[in-house]
Design brief:
The protein has 7 helices and 5 strands, in the order H-H-E-H-H-E-H-H-E-H-E-E. The protein has about 220 residues and is α+β, with helices and mostly antiparallel strands. It has one domain: NADH Oxidase (3-Layer(aba) Sandwich). Strands 1, 2, 3, 4 and 5 form a 5-stranded antiparallel beta sheet that branches. Helix 2 packs across helix 6, helix 3 runs antiparallel to helix 4 and helix 3 runs antiparallel to helix 7. The N and C termini lie far apart (about 45 Å). About 25% of the residues are buried.
């Protein structure tokens, strides 16, 4: 597929979480998803192990089942103090943004099972048990590849939304998809064509508020 002329900086600063603008009615060719995954596989991994596995779910029944698990998990999340819409209520500069994020997240939660393609990046983990200590090295061998996928999708007219709320029901989803015991899921990336290409850089806290040089 011919990709639009996006500079590296534009691609990196306009790859946004897409929820309300996912086109739920337009099929996504599997070949296009494969193109994005080929880009994903160019990401680094610890010791060049390349232990990632990718589950691409297109079957309507399986998508609906995953969507129901996601809806249940989101309901509990939305009722918690950690939900996007509950954060920064005392900060007028951020409260409205958080409300919009919460609304769009709720919108997607009700429609997750209708998204044409659900991509689940996974890792093989010895014995299927996650290490008890620092897991940065483990997930650092998967998450950059998942972000590569999201960038490649954006460049091809596809929108994605990075989420992991379905992992509350990781075992149930694993059974649904027939995953081996040593395969652990790292994220859920709903994928569809987006409607309206008006993505732009998001407001962020100033760099100097989070930058530390040499010492905290």
């Amino acid at each position: 597929m011919t990709t639009p002329p996006l500079s590296p900086d534009e691609l990196l600063t306009t790859t946004r979480t897409v929820r309300k603008r996912l086109d739920l009615d337009r099929p996504v060719p599997l070949g296009l998803v494969r193109e994005c995954l080929e880009i994903a596989l160019q990401a680094p991994s610890g010791s060049n192990r390349q232990g990632w596995q990718w589950i691409v779910v297109t079957d309507a029944g399986q998508r609906a089942a995953i969507g129901e698990y996601y809806r249940r998990s989101f309901a509990a999340y939305a009722a918690s103090k950690e939900s996007a819409g509950s954060l920064y209520k005392d900060d007028p500069d951020r409260a409205e943004v958080q409300r919009r994020v919460g609304d769009s997240a709720a919108y997607l939660a009700e429609r997750m099972g209708d998204v044409p393609v659900l991509v689940i990046p996974c890792l093989r983990v010895e014995g299927g048990k996650l290490p008890g200590g620092n897991q940065a090295g483990l997930w650092g061998s998967l998450l950059p590849a998942a972000w590569n996928y999201a960038l490649a999708a954006r460049a091809r007219g596809l929108g994605t939304a990075w989420t992991s709320l379905h992992l509350v029901y990781e075992r149930e989803v694993a059974e649904l998809l027939g995953l081996p015991e040593d395969v652990r899921q790292g994220a859920l990336l709903p994928t569809a064509f987006y409607t309206g290409d008006t993505f732009r850089p998001a407001a962020r806290v100033p760099l100097d508020e989070v930058l530390h040089i040499d010492r905290w």
